[in-house]
Design brief:
By secondary structure, the chain is of the alpha/beta class. About 25% of the residues lie in helices and about 25% in strands. The chain folds into two domains: about 210 residues, Quinone Oxidoreductase, Chain A, domain 1, CATH 3.90.180; about 130 residues, NAD(P)-binding Rossmann-like Domain (Rossmann fold, 3-Layer(aba) Sandwich).
């Protein structure tokens, strides 16, 4: 099969022929239909986060089940599925307490003594984040995908696999935004737009979008932002305070992954507010906060894939889209071929587009 392979940090992905194994007892072989090009992939390309190489990248995808292992009961051949990088075992402490996204059990991967899921002479090819979806096929654990209704377009379904679940989940699960509360979202890329959309669905009274790209701020309004702030016009924290009559917001969401914007997300909180860090802050970067703010019961917390329970959440998000509540059409900027994946990364670096989606039937 064709796949986009990262062999060296900082270098373009190479389109190569990669071998894929047959499903084990709890594994599923999927024909990839669509894969979103996410900024998280770019972090690994640039080396902000280390990963064993060579690896087939990609982690935001949807496709059709081709084969299943002997013990698989969750999906069957012909099912349309969305994949999720936060594969879960189902019986560890995190899973049994309802925190599926926190599961780190090695059971969802093959053991070192087994044949690897992916291979390419002269050695094994590393699977990326349990998926490796920049490829014509995926071989994954059954608890890394969920079946969805077949009338859902798979190019839009792919976005639910990462950015939507991460953004909407952070709002409704991690921070538990309640109707009428105020929200600020720092960064209006794919995840940030999903946060804005999720806040609108949750009934937030005021949703403030913050970004330096005017085009993204315009898009944010379509996703539900009631106000927009451009840091080019002045200190974004001060602008948020002015919009909220000096009170600050109940919830902020940092969807970029920078030291400065993370600190800003905390500073724009009101008393008792919660800052949620969704962006991938580079390894080794430290953030600085003023201790006195904790006396006002302000909190800062991380969010892993929107604290999802994806087998439940993703089919519901599909229904949200089909009912007109979740905006996915507007999030897709371009549909491209696998061979154009490096172009999509260049666009991400420029910060111009919300999402490029690789279509494997293109």
């Amino acid at each position: 099969m064709k796949a986009a392979v990262l062999r060296e940090v900082g270098k373009p992905l190479a389109i190569e022929d990669v071998q894929i194994n047959k499903p084990g007892p709890h594994e599923v072989l999927i024909r990839t239909v669509a894969a979103g090009v996410c900024h998280s992939d770019l972090h690994f390309v640039e080396g902000s986060y280390p990963y064993p190489l060579p690896a087939v990248l990609g982690h935001e995808s949807a496709g059709i089940v081709e084969q299943v292992g002997s013990e698989v009961r969750t999906v069957k051949p012909g099912d349309h599925v969305i994949t999720c990088l936060s594969a879960f075992c189902g019986h560890c402490e995190h899973c049994l307490t309802g925190h599926l996204s926190r599961c780190v059990s090695p059971e969802t991967k093959r053991e070192a003594s087994e044949e690897p899921r992916l291979g390419n002479a002269p050695g094994a090819m590393n699977q990326f984040l349990n998926l490796s979806s920049f490829a014509e096929q995926m071989l994954i654990h059954e608890h890394a995908c969920v079946a969805i209704r077949k009338d859902m377009p798979l190019d839009r379904a792919a976005l639910i696999g990462c950015s939507v679940t991460t953004g909407v989940g952070a709002v409704i699960h991690t921070s538990n935004v309640r109707p009428g509360e105020t929200v600020a979202v720092v960064g209006a890329g794919g995840v940030g737009l999903a946060c804005i959309n999720g806040a609108a669905i949750a009934g937030a009274g005021r949703i403030i979008a913050i970004d330096m790209q005017g085009s993204k701020l315009n898009l944010a309004k379509e996703f539900g932002a009631t106000d927009v702030v451009n840091p080019k016009d002045g200190d974004p924290v001060q602008q948020v305070m002015e919009l909220t009559n000096g009170l600050g917001v109940h919830h902020s969401f940092e969807a970029i992954g920078l030291k400065a914007t993370t600190e800003q997300a905390f500073k724009m909180l009101g008393r008792g507010g919660t800052a949620n860090v969704i962006g991938m802050i580079p390894v080794g970067v430290h953030i600085e906060l003023h201790g006195v703010d904790f006396l006002a019961e302000k909190r800062i917390q991380g969010s892993t894939m929107g604290s999802n329970r994806f087998p439940i959440d993703m089919p519901r998000f599909v229904d949200f889209y089909m009912n007109g509540k979740l905006k996915l059409d507007e999030m897709i900027s371009r549909r491209i071929k696998l061979e154009q994946v490096n172009e999509a990364f260049d666009e991400l670096k420029r910060g111009e587009l919300a999402r490029s989606v690789i279509m494997f039937d293109a």
